[in-house]
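ARCHIVE CARD
Drawer: 12
Card no.: 0347
Subject: one protein chain, sequence and derived structure
Cross-reference: see card 0346
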Amino acid sequence: MSVYDTLSQLGITLPPVAVPAAAYVPFVQTGKLVFLSGHIAKKDGKPWVGQLGAGIATAEGQAAARAVAIDLLGTLHAAVGDLNQVARIVKLMSLVNSTPTFTEQHLVTNGASELIGQVFGAAGAHARSAFGVAQIPLGACVEIELIAELK
């Protein structure tokens, strides 16, 4: 089954690439690796603002991370032209805007990791880091970057 069939079954429409909010590009390819810049969580087209452990629960953070993964897939599609050319998702790095006592950054990040696994199957199994941070640009609750390898 193609990646696009899977996305369709999941009811996911890929968004266009977001315009960078600062001095960077949305992706860079070197050799067979594609590096996607960090994408912040958005809800209704605006930054999904808040802090885990202070107003945002883990389940909502997971939904935000899943939303980021969808945006990342849109950017990856724009970068490579065909998601079926992805050999493997190599790594995700997740930054979770959280209080000093919040310790479930890894569970929040599962919202993105699980979707990537659903979309790419075995090729979606990736290395990962999940960090708690004091703040993310625009007050967003989650930011994630991705590295993919092409066939």
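Annotation on reverse: The chain has a mean pLDDT of 97. The longest strand covers residues 86-97.
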